Amino acid sequence: MGDDPQWLRMRIFAFLSLTLLGALGARLWFLQTVEHEQFKFEAETNVLEPVYEEAPRGRILDRKGRVLVDNKVVQVVTIDRAELGDLDDEAKEELLVRLAIAVSRSGRLTKADAIAAEIEDRSYGPFESIPVAVDVDPDLLVFIGERQDEFPGVDVVQRTVRSYPYGSLAAHVLGYVGPITRAEWESVTDPDEPGDKPYQLNDEVGKTGVERVFEDELRGVPGIRYLEVDRSSNVIGEDEDRRRDPEPGNDVWLTIDIDYQALAERELDEGLAQARLQEKRDPADAPFVASAGSVVMTDPQTGAVLAMASYPTYEPADFVNGISLTQFNELTSEDNFSPILNRAIQGQYAPGSTFKLVSAYAALEEGVIGDDDDSIRGVNDAYVDRGDYTYSQCFEDSDTCIYRSPFTGARSVNLASALTVSSDTYFYEIGGEGFWRRPSEDLNGDGITEDEGIQKWAKLMGLGTDTGIQLPYERGGAVPDRDYFRSQFDAGVFATSQWLGGNTINLSIGQGELLITPLQLANVYATFANGGVVHQPNIGLRVTTGGEESELVREIGPRILRDLEIPQEFRTPIEQGLLGVPRSDGRFSGTAWRAFNEVGFPLGSWPVAGKTGTAEVNDKADSSLFAAYGPTDNPGYGIFIDEEPSVSIAVILEEAGFGSSAAAPVAARILEKIATDTVEPARSLEQTEALIAELVAARLEEEAELQAAEDGDDPAEGSDETAASP
C-alpha cells in the first residue's frame, strides 16, 4: 500500500492543499491584523468630489407662445486639467499651440495664450473640464478624436447655449446671460443652504432684462456626478448610484406680442431716419441728430406691456460666446448713443406738452378749473390765447415776467380746445394764477406735501417713482417741488434751493426739472384711458415647466397700485380735447392731424385720444413726443363704440424736433396697422434667410430668362439649368 503510486499522489495533493490553505490563512491574518490600519486609513482618505453639470435654461416666449429665446446644442473644446498636469512645460506649450491652430482652422480664431489663461483660471473646480472654445465646427470633434495622442486631455463635447430665433428683436426686454462673477456668486450662494440650484463660478446667469429678473425660474437644476478621489487627487472611480442628470429650467411667457414688437422697432427706426432729413428753420438751430428713441405700448385694462422698443439696439447673441471688453465699451459708449441702454425704462426726458393731460386733470381735481369761487375759470369758459402770458405776481417789470409760446396771433380756447391745439399760455395761466397761489399742504392726508397740486396728482398717476415693471435698472424720473429743490441744492446739483412761481409755470407745460420715462408716459395715458386705475406694468405673463408636456407653474395677473376713480365730468372735457388732436374739424386743427391724415387713419371706427409734445433740451434739438390711447368713444364728437381702450402708446424721439412732425407720424403708422388689423407677422431669422434665398433665386431666374432672350434661345429651354448653375 505504501508503494502504491495512487496513494503517493494523494499524499502529495493533500500536502499541496494544506500548504496553499496555510498560505491563504496567513495572508488573511496579515491583512486583518498587520495591514488593517493601513487599509482603513487609505479607505477613509478616499473622498467623493461633486462635479456639477449646468442645466439648460428655460425658454422665453411671447404671449402667443412663439419662442423668443431658445437653446441650441454646440460643440465645446474642453481640457482636463489633471491630464495636462502630467505633461512637462515644453510638452504643454506645444499642445496648446497645436490646439490653438486646430481651433482657429475650424473657424474660431483662438490663441494659445488665451487657452493658457482659461486653464489657469482658479474659478474652475479642480475636477471640471475647462471650456477653451465654444461653438466650434463639428468636424473638429472628428479631427481631435482621431489624434488623441496629439491632444492628451482634450475633448470636444456638446453643451447648450442661448439662441435667438428673432435676432435682435426685443433685445432690451430679453436681456443677455454671461458667466457669474465672484461678487454675484457670493450674493446668491449660501454655504449652509445651497438649495437645489447651486451656482458654480463661471455658470451662466442672467445679466439684464427678463434673463435677470426671472433668473430663479429660468435656471434649471444642475446635474451632479460624484467622483471618488484619493488623497493624491487622482480620480479612481465614480459613484454611479448617486449621479443626477440636469433638469431644464421653467419657461417664461411674456406679455409682449412679437408682431407688435417688430412693428414698433421698424417704425421707430424709420421715424428717426425721417427726422434726420428735416431742414432746420433757422441755420443757428441745433441739428436734428435723431440718434435714439423709444416706443412703448401697453394694455390699459391690464397693465400688460405689448411692445417695448429702444433704439439703438444690440445683438444679444454677441454675448453667447463671450464678448470682448472693446465690444462692451462700444455698447455702453455715449459716443455710440449707448445701444445697451433700455431707453423705455432708463431714458429720462422732459415730457413737454404730453404732460398737459396731468395738468388739466390736476386743475379739475384741485378746483383751479371749475365752478368753485376759487377757480380761475370754468371748463367751457373762453380764454384768449395771444401767444404770451405775463405772470401777475412777478416782482420785476421785465421781460422775464413774460412766458411766450410758438403760437402767434389770437384764438379763443377752452379746456378741451386748449389741449387740441396745445395752447401753452392757457396752461401758463393755470400754473401761475392757479396752482402757484394755492397753499402748500397735505390736502388729502396722504403724506404728499409741499406742492401746488400738479405734483400731487402727477405722483398719484405714477410719476416720480419707478413703475415696478419686472425689468432691472428702471429709473424713476423726477417730479420737482420745494423739497426736491432743497435736496438737489444740498447735493450740489442745483444753484438755488428756492422754488419760485416760474417753476410752477414751466411745470404746467411739462418743462423745467420734470423727468419721465417712456414707460411712465404710456402708463399715465393708460391710467386716464381706463378711468383711473394705476397699474404696475407687467412684462411677465405666466411661467410653465419646460419640456414637451409643460404644466402651468403660476400666472402673473394684473397688479393694481391704486384707483383714482376719475369722475366722468373730469374725463369728458379732457378726452374731448385729446380726441381732437389727430383731427381737423374746420374750426380747430389738432397738432397731430396731418400725421394721422397722411396714413388715412380710420378715426371714425377706431378713435384715438392723444397729445403731441415738444421738449426743449439745452444746446440740442428738441425731443419729440407723442402719447395716446384708443379706441375710445366721446359724446362730444358723436363717437359711440362698444369697446374699451385696448392700446396705450408713448413715442419719444431724441433731438428730432416737434412732436407733431416726428413722433406723431410714428404713432400714427403703428396704430393704423393695429386699427385695421394689418400688423405683419414678425419674421424669424430662419424665415428671413428663406425669403432672401427665394428672392435671389427669382432674380437669378429672371436674369437667366433675359439673357436667353438676348441670345435668341427659347427661355423655357434650359432655364432651370441656367438658374441652378450659380
Describe the overall structure.
There is one protein chain. The chain is α+β, with helices and mostly antiparallel strands and 726 residues long. It has 25 helices and 23 strands. Strands 2, 3, 4, 5, 10, 18 and 19 form a 7-stranded mixed sheet that branches. Residues 717-726 have low confidence and may be disordered.
Topology (SSEs and partners):
Blueprint (H helix, E strand, L loop, with lengths): L4 H30 L1 H10 L1 E7 L6 E2 L5 E14 H4 L4 H17 L6 H9 L8 E8 L2 H7 L8 E10 L7 H4 L2 E3 L2 H7 L15 E3 L2 H5 L1 H4 L4 E7 L5 E4 L12 E4 L3 H19 L16 E6 L6 E7 L13 H8 L10 H4 L9 H11 L16 E3 L2 E3 L11 E3 L6 E3 L1 H7 L2 H12 L18 H7 L21 H9 L10 H8 L9 H12 L3 E4 L3 E5 L7 E4 L3 E5 L4 H13 L12 H6 L10 E9 L2 E11 L16 E7 L5 H17 L9 H27 L7 H6 L2
Parallel strand pairs: 2-10
Antiparallel strand pairs: 1-8, 2-3, 3-4, 3-5, 6-7, 8-9, 10-18, 11-12, 11-23, 13-16, 14-15, 17-20, 18-19, 21-22, 22-23
